[in-house]
Amino acid sequence: MKVFGIAGWSGSGKTTLLEKLIPALLARGLKVSVIKHAHHGFDIDKPGKDSYRHRAAGAAEVMLASGSRWALMHECRDEPEPALSTLLARLTPCDLVLVEGFKQEPVPKLEVHRPANGKPPLFAERDDIVAVACDEAIAAPIPVLPLNDIATVADFIIRHCQLKV
Questions:
Q1: Between the N and C ends of the chain, which has fewer C-beta atoms within 10 Å?
Q2: What's the pTM value of the predicted model, to 2 decimals?
Q3: Domain residues of the chain, as ranges?
Q4: Residues in the chain with pLDDT < 50?
């Protein structure tokens, strides 16, 4: 599996880019998965549901399954946050794993940058950022891609990851 990151400050448009990029990559015949890092606690479960009650009772993992999807919830409890490599090992093999967040992980990344947000670009500090997608022209020592040109962004990722389409 090829791994490619999407990084940027909060509010830069990472999720919106991924939402448009995934169908473009699927249309080229690729099987794509996503790992999203959350900086805060989150819960995909609801109090009162059986699965929530099982976790609250102390189960280390609870798997929900139906005819349309399944989900595995793993409680870290006293464990440290898992490394990206640990999470990647749990995925079903695919062509490309897009990783949103995990800025510190040493995987090739596309930075989503919006100068209007007033935040400094990350590419100046990170060697693993291989291109920047921006909503305006900027000077950079790496390729600058038009943020709203999804085909160009998809083509760049395919070339960089040497994916066969």
A1: C
A2: 0.91
A3: 2-41+81-160
A4: none
